[in-house]
Write a structure and sequence with these properties.
It contains 6 helices and 23 strands. A 7-stranded parallel beta barrel has the order 11-12-14-16-17-15-13. Strand 7 and strand 8 form a beta hairpin. The N terminus is likely disordered. The chain binds 2-acetamido-2-deoxy-beta-D-glucopyranose (NAG) (10 copies). The site of one 2-acetamido-2-deoxy-beta-D-glucopyranose has 4 residues, from loops. Specific in hydrolyzing the terminal glycosidic bond of polygalacturonic acid and oligogalacturonates. Belongs to the glycosyl hydrolase 28 family. Its EC number is 3.2.1.67.
Length: 387
């Protein structure tokens, strides 16, 4: 580690913290996590030069930081030890996740053009024979305020790429996420972003190639803009799943997803709430999905409230003020849009405009259940089924 003092000797603690540091790898067989943690604590800017690959073999707890710039020009590579990390990742109770790296605090910048390599292949293969294996999320922003992550690439996350947990004013700009398995075992659960208990989040101008949700809005996510994404191979831009846990009230409000290219995906724009016995409750309000261009997407537009269980055990999650606007492209199944609601007015003010979806192998079907649709595409759906 190299410290470059910018200011003369006799510094206050704050000025010492203004140091600029550069760290390079300790060498074969050595864990670089401790020196990276030390540098981030001591220095305001930490540069990892482009020629450097840091070997991260123990968890990175970077919580409670303030005014830090991590200039990643090189590579942060997590050691592919499945046995080690499955026992030593930091745990989060929400959906039983673990993570390699927690980053939190105020006024943080992560950029530099470098790569965060999650060494996912070992995990894709291990998970195929042990589906109970806990796999680490690559980066968790935890209690993070005024944070920017930009001009960074991520490769092969074992699990979700980014978990924004307790974030406020967080922006991701110009990041590339790619999870590709080289074996027959898929890169499963590699969500691009999962946002939870967070407010004011922007994800823009980014390219994602993965094996699960491109972006997912989990409970208590408000005021999010997702713009200019190109998602390939994913499960789409999803609200939910909400209302999963009995006794817990989930809120997702004020979300706009705009200018999205979605290719080879399972879903395009999706809202997913739990129905069935013993579920929780919540509200999904003021969500706009607009300017989506979809190519070969199985379900370009959908709600998924487990329609079989809906009539018996309606979802307790209300869905209000939803706008699907200018969604164009092709579906790989004949039902290109499926808006299925639980009975008793669980869904209200649902607007569909300028939808233009086709099914190349036949007639495109637009279906709905227990919902009154407004907008210039409502007639495509005909009369919705009621149960
Ligand atoms: C990374 O560090 C771990 C722990 O010291 C070591 O076992 C492993 O061989 C190192 N990996 C590389 C590529 O040097
Ligand atoms: C991370 O470090 C902080 C400060 O030392 C500590 O309070 C916190 O418990 C640690 N987090 C985890 C998950 O270990
Ligand atoms: C949000 O974070 C950015 C980047 O850190 C900062 O420039 C901006 O002032 C913050 N906005 C608010 C309202 O604090
Ligand atoms: C986006 O990030 C990459 C590095 O991942 C960089 O090479 C490129 O210049 C950035 N683009 C913009 C517009 O900043
Ligand atoms: C997009 O996803 C498809 C299907 O998963 C895959 O075959 C293809 O290689 C991906 N394309 C890119 C550019 O990553
Ligand atoms: C979400 O916010 C509501 C209202 O503040 C609260 O009751 C609920 O417990 C929160 N949900 C979670 C998962 O924290
Ligand atoms: C709906 O959410 C968007 C942000 O996605 C926000 O700009 C707009 O003001 C919200 N509308 C209402 C009526 O709250
Ligand atoms: C949604 O946006 C509106 C309009 O900006 C704002 O009044 C409201 O407080 C926001 N809701 C939440 C939960 O932040
Ligand atoms: C639908 O498309 C037309 C023509 O592009 C445009 O004038 C109109 O504003 C659009 N409607 C909505 C609700 O976006
Ligand atoms: C959707 O938006 C595109 C790009 O703005 C525009 O060219 C197209 O006419 C719109 N389609 C509809 C159906 O409004």
């Amino acid at each position: 580690m190299r410290f470059i003092a910018l200011l003369p000797l006799g510094l206050s603690a704050f000025q010492v913290a203004a140091a600029q540091c550069t760290i390079t790898a300790l060498g074969t067989g050595k864990d670089d996590a401790p020196q990276l943690l030390t540098a981030v604590k001591a220095c305001s800017t930490v540069t990892i030069p482009s020629s450097t690959t840091l070997n991260i073999s123990s968890p990175l707890n970077m919580t409670g930081l303030s005014n830090k710039h991590l200039n990643l020009e090189g590579t942060i590579k997590f050691n592919p030890s499945v046995t080690y990390w499955s026992k030593n990742g930091f745990p989060f109770s929400y959906q039983t996740q673990i993570t390699y790296w927690i980053l939190g605090g105020t006024n943080l910048l992560l950029d530099g053009g470098g790569l965060i390599d999650g060494s996912g292949q070992a995990w894709y293969d291990a998970f195929a024979s042990d589906s109970s294996l806990l796999r680490p999320v690559t980066l968790t922003l935890y209690q993070a305020t005024n944070v920017v992550v930009q001009n960074i690439r991520y490769a092969n996350s074992p699990e979700w790429f980014n978990f924004v947990n307790g974030g406020k004013n967080v922006t991701f700009n110009n990041v590339t996420l790619s999870a590709v398995s080289t074996s027959k075992n898929g890169a499963v659960n590699t969500d691009g972003w999962d946002i939870y208990l967070s407010d004011t989040v922007t994800i823009k101008n980014s390219v994602i190639n993965n094996g699960d949700d491109c972006v997912s809005f989990k409970p208590n996510t408000t005021n999010v803009l997702v713009s200019g994404l190109s998602c390939n191979g994913s499960h789409g831009i999803s609200v939910g799943s909400l209302g999963q846990y009995a006794g817990i009230y989930d809120i997702v409000e004020n979300i706009t997803a705009t200018n999205i290219k979605m290719s080879n995906a399972q879903n395009g724009a999706r809202i997913k709430c739990w129905a069935g016995s013993g579920v929780g409750s919540g509200i999904v309000k003021n969500i706009t999905f607009e300017f989506f261009t979809e190519t070969a997407v199985e379900n370009p537009v959908c709600y998924e409230t487990s329609s079989s269980e809906c009539s018996e055990f309606p979802s307790n999650t209300l869905i209000q003020d939803i706008f699907f606007t200018n969604i164009t492209g092709t579906g790989t199944s004949s039902t290109v849009a499926d808006l299925g609601c639980s009975p008793d007015s669980r869904c209200s003010d649902i607007n569909v405009n300028n939808l233009s979806l086709s099914y190349p192998s036949g007639t495109a079907k637009y279906t709905c259940q227990n919902v009154q649709l407004s907008g210039n595409s409502a007639s495509l759906f005909g009369t919705c089924k009621t149960t």
